């Protein structure tokens, strides 16, 4: 039976600078992890709403190990669609962030040898239908130091709705929707039209529901995107440039905290929480179960018209001219948006910076589809013709083709919404993007040649034979700028001066390595290539957190801006146990989450672990040898017999390594003329100083002249038996240090069979100076460790 893991000496040292909370989130490999009976009792308390995760693609593996109820052929057919993943409590649209743990054959990242495991998916899911169920589950998990995640549709592009060894709150069933033509504000009694809806809606069901009352909501154009995560991260869409972002529409929310409170947040109560929910990021402050959102009149019509710029040939001159034409188009956007237009566009380019790659079959092109409401086709055309003329004046028509499409009209917004969202939304693919919010000074106030250069540089491709895609969203402008101060929340203030939200792709996921390694490689490439271009082009700007680089080293500034520090205070208030962790979330830089192991640990401890793994792997053979010597020396002291090992030449070496193998919970250290025994247990730390001269060798250190009293004899007898146990586990430690494979391996499945001991660890101490330690009992956890997570 596994022995309960205790806090090692190095953890005490590392945690001094960390929070008072436990430094690692529990995993099934910890003795404190709830038993099956505990989970069953929780399920009973929740009225049978607890689901044990059973990966749906399990049916594609021999024996269907998790007993999936869906046939493999159905899973393979539906895997590429967002609506399918949204219907499953454990599944997400970006399985790379769930460590590709159980993929169907043919899916990106699938390898038959990896097999099927729960892996990066939650251990259990609460299929919640009431706020009380959410509150009960949140308190239960928080008290047990279990990570909590929140999932609505699983559409999140940055892995924030999945997490290993977590309890997931599935808000899928909160789908109430009603209309109040005169919703009254609790703060000043003003009234306005509002839609009251549950957070389980996606924008398809929410928009269609609002349309029944003749109203529209500021939401996403993709009908499969969930309301909850989208709107809390800012939430842009076709109406953003008119009314502001989705976060700007929130009048009131209902939130369940990790402490079990069910709170109503509006301008009259819990105002700080309302402020945080208005754009401060999803999955961080509590579970939002319902919204009251501004409801706007349905526009009378929607008029669309597009401009496309492309190289007339495949020669370098034509392509350079196309870049300049593209720059003229973008430079015109601020004036067009101030005139009432909005829209979305795309750029496509080959990797022109690679001279070794033939460009003969590649092309450079860009297009923006503009649209606006309650207007005429002639009005839209009159705004766009001068832009076409400026492009031609800049580059001529011999090298660049500039097309202005015929305008088209939809009778109302919902007709436009349905036509724009006809194609099913993709999912199950692997990709990573980076983005930037661009204002007038980045678009119109710089030379065309400079803007064209930035466009070329930001559209590089990691694959020298591939292409790079840019998505251009005209979601800023007058709408966000004109939102009243009282309605502005934590949304990055840069949005107020933004015109274009620009996303750049081009990174390549290596399917031949683990997801952790693949993401780390892409993150490094983005940090070295694209992020510097953004920072040069738009210094002091930011990025849209829902569609950005989650490994951005400046995520605090880019995603949250000036709101970050206040958000950190609010998170500590409403989530004091730090149960809610998301990648690039508020406070996430204090934690490390390893996709390969599911480990989540505090950042202060990561330096210790990283250094220890590197050092211990090299010197482990020496450690095993000196484990034996430690036993002999302890026996030598207890029975007062001559030391077994007494070769003088070995004394300096033994003096260096002996402290390394001393028990991590009963560690003897010395410095100068003071020797001390530190006994560290799960509940206390005992420091016993002993004023003696520093020992000249490890042998005299264990001499009866240093520790003559019976209590120390008892301590050393205890060390003897623990040392024997530690020696027996050393080879297992060596295997694990050299093999950080996914923890879903067969030998780790049964938690009571996991090799673990409260004396199982290594500490390296030299000349009285603590250097580093690695405690295997913390090997597969979410813990506070050393640096920004790389996967």
What would you say this structure looks like, in words?
The chain is α+β, with helices and mostly antiparallel strands and 791 residues long. Among the domains are: 19-170, no CATH class; 606-784, no CATH class. The protein is 32% helix and 20% strand. It contains 23 helices and 28 strands. Strands 13, 14, 15, 16, 17, 18, 19 and 20 form an 8-stranded antiparallel beta sheet that branches. A 5-stranded antiparallel beta sheet has the order 6-7-11-9-10. A 4-stranded mixed beta sheet has the order 1-28-22-21. Strand 21 (591-594) and strand 22 (599-602) form a beta hairpin. Helix 10 packs across helix 15 and helix 15 runs antiparallel to helix 17 (515-537). 51% of the residues are buried.
Short description:
This protein has 23 helices and 28 strands.
- Enumerate how many helices there are, as a single number: 23
The helix/strand class is alpha+beta
Estimated helix fraction: 25-40%
| Radius of gyration (Å) | 30 Å
Strand runs, count = 28
Write down the overall geometry.
Answer: globular
Share in β-strands: 15-25%
Mean pLDDT: 78
Distance between the termini: 33 Å
| Poorly predicted sequence stretches spanning 5 or more consecutive residues | 1-21, 352-361, 631-713, 735-780, 786-791
């Amino acid at each position: 039976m596994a022995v309960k893991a205790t806090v090692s000496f190095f953890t005490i040292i590392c945690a001094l600078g960390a929070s008072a909370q436990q430094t690692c989130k529990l995993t099934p490999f910890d003795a404190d992890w709830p038993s099956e009976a505990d989970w069953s009792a929780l399920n009973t308390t929740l009225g049978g709403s607890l689901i044990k995760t059973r990966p749906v693609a399990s049916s594609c593996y021999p024996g269907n190990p998790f007993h999936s109820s869906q046939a493999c052929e159905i899973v393979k057919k539906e895997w590429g669609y967002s609506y399918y993943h949204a219907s499953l409590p454990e599944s997400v649209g970006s399985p790379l962030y769930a460590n590709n743990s159980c993929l169907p054959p043919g899916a990106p990242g699938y390898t038959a040898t990896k097999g099927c495991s729960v892996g990066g998916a939650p251990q259990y899911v609460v299929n919640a239908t009431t706020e009380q169920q959410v509150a009960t589950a949140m308190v239960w998990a928080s008290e047990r130091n279990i990570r909590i995640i929140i999932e609505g549709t699983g559409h999140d592009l940055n892995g924030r709705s999945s997490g290993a060894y977590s309890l997931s709150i599935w808000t899928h069933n909160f789908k109430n929707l009603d209309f109040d033509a005169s919703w009254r504000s609790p703060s000043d009694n003003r009234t306005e039209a509002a839609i009251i809806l549950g957070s389980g809606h996606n924008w398809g069901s929410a928009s269609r529901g609002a349309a029944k009352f003749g109203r529209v909501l500021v939401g996403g154009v993709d009908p499969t995107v969930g309301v909850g995560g989208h709107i809390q991260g800012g939430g842009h869409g076709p109406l953003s440039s008119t009314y502001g972002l989705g976060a700007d529409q929130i009048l009131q929310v209902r939130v369940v905290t990790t402490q079990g409170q069910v709170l109503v947040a509006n301008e009259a109560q819990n105002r700080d929480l309302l402020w945080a929910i208005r754009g401060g990021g999803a999955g961080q402050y509590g579970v939002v179960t319902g919204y009251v959102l501004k409801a706007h009149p349905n526009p009378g019509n929607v008029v669309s018209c597009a401009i496309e710029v492309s190289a007339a040939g495949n020669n370098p001159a034509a392509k350079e001219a196309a870049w300049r034409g593209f720059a003229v188009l973008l430079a015109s956007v601020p004036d067009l948006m101030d005139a009432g237009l909005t829209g979305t566009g795309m750029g496509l380019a080959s990797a022109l910076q690679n001279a070794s790659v033939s460009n003969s079959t590649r092309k450079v092109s860009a297009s923006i589809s503009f649209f606006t409401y309650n207007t005429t086709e002639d009005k839209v055309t009159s705004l766009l013709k001068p832009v076409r003329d400026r492009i031609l004046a800049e580059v001529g028509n011999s090298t660049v083709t500039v097309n202005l499409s015929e305008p088209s009209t939809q009778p109302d917004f919902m007709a436009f919404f349905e036509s724009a969202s006809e194609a099913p939304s993709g999912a199950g693919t692997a990709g990573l993007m980076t983005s930037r919010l661009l204002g007038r000074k980045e678009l119109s106030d710089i030379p065309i040649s400079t803007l064209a250069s930035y466009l070329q540089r930001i559209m590089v491709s990691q694959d020298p034979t591939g292409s790079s895609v840019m998505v251009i969203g005209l979601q800023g402008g007058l709408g966000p700028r004109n939102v009243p101060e009282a309605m502005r929340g934590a949304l990055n203030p840069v949005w107020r001066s933004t015109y274009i939200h620009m996303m750049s792709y081009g990174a390549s996921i290596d399917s031949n390595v683990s997801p952790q390694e693949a993401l780390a490689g892409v993150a490094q490439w983005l940090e070295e290539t694209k992020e510097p271009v953004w920072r040069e082009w738009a210094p002091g700007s930011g990025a849209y957190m829902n569609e950005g680089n989650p490994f951005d080293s400046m995520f605090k500034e880019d995603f949250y801006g000036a709101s970050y520090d206040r958000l950190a205070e609010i998170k500590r208030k409403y989530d004091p146990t730090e149960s809610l962790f998301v990648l690039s979330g508020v406070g996430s830089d204090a934690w490390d989450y390893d996709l390969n192991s599911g480990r989540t640990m505090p950042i202060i401890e990561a330096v210790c672990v990283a250094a220890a793994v590197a050092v211990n792997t090299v010197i482990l053979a020496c450690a095993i040898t000196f484990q034996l010597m430690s036993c002999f020396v302890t026996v030598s002291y207890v029975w007062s017999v001559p030391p077994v090992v007494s070769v003088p030449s070995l004394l300096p070496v033994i003096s260096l390594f002996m402290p390394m193998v001393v028990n991590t919970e009963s560690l003897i250290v010395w410095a100068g003329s003071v020797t001390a025994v530190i006994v560290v247990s799960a509940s206390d730390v005992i420091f016993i100083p002993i004023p003696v001269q520093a020992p000249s060798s490890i042998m005299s250190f264990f001499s009866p002249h240093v520790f003559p009293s019976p209590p120390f004899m008892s301590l050393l007898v205890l060390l003897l038996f623990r040392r024997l146990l530690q020696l027996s586990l050393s080879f297992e430690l060596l295997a694990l240090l050299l093999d950080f494979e996914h923890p879903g391996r067969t030998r780790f499945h049964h938690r009571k069979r996991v090799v673990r001991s409260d004396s199982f660890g290594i500490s390296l101490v030299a000349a009285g100076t603590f250097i580093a330690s690695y405690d295997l009992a913390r090997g597969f956890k979410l813990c506070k460790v050393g640096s920004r997570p790389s996967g």
